[in-house]
Structures are given as structure tokens and as C-alpha cells.
Amino acid sequence: MRWILALLAVLTLLTGVLLLSNRSLQHDLTLTGQQRDALKAQLQQRETLIATLNQQMRQRERAELVLRENLSTAQRAMQTREHQRQGELHDDPQLRVWADTALPAAVSRLHQRPAFNSTGDYLRWLSGSQPVPGTVRATGN
Fold this sequence. Notes:
There is one protein chain. By secondary structure, this protein is mainly α. 81% of the residues lie in helices and 0% in strands. It contains 4 helices and no strands. It is rod-shaped.
């Protein structure tokens, strides 16, 4: 009979240990489920972000394509105008003489300026330059 009582005590102790272990495992399972849910939420957010970034990338690619097409159209228009100007210059001797005439010295000086490293350099150069002379006679326009 003693050995039955000892066996019952051991079984009771073993049952208590198993219950505590079960409770600990249940707690671990709950924590793991919460972590899984948090990771799922993070993954969903990242997938949404990736989809948004992909959409923005496609929009930028389309905009870049439109800009390239506009640039190409503008270049073709510029080339057409330049060819037309060259043709007019070639065909009209009076226009050719006018185009080959040198600019007056005062106008040429307006196009001359040194290279600047900063806005301060430009302001110093601008404040030190001579004022543009007034017109001597009124134009007929």
C-alpha cells in the first residue's frame, strides 16, 4: 500500500509538472501567434509599399517617356526652324548682309562678363560696372 501511495504522489507531482509545462507551452504558443500576426501585418505593409513604389515608378517612366517625346519634338522643330532660317539667309542677300553685320561695340560689351564662382562675385562685378549709356536719339518705333 505504501508503494501505491508513493506512486500516487509521484503521479500527482508528475501531473502538476505536466500542467505547469502545458501552461508554459500555451503561453509560448500565444506569444508566437501574436508575433506571427505582427509579422503578417508588417509583410502586408511592405507589400503595399512595394506596390505603391512600383506604381510611382511606372508613372515616372511614363512621364519620362512623355518628356523625351516632347524634347524630341522640340529638337525637330528647332532643326526645322534652323533649316528654314538658313534657307532664308541663303536666299535673301539683304538678310545675309544684315546677319553678317557686327554688333555695335556697346552691345558687344553687354555680352562680355567674367566667369563667376558665386552670387557675391556677380553682385560685386555688377555694382562695379559702368552704367549703360542712354539713347542719343529716339527710335522711330
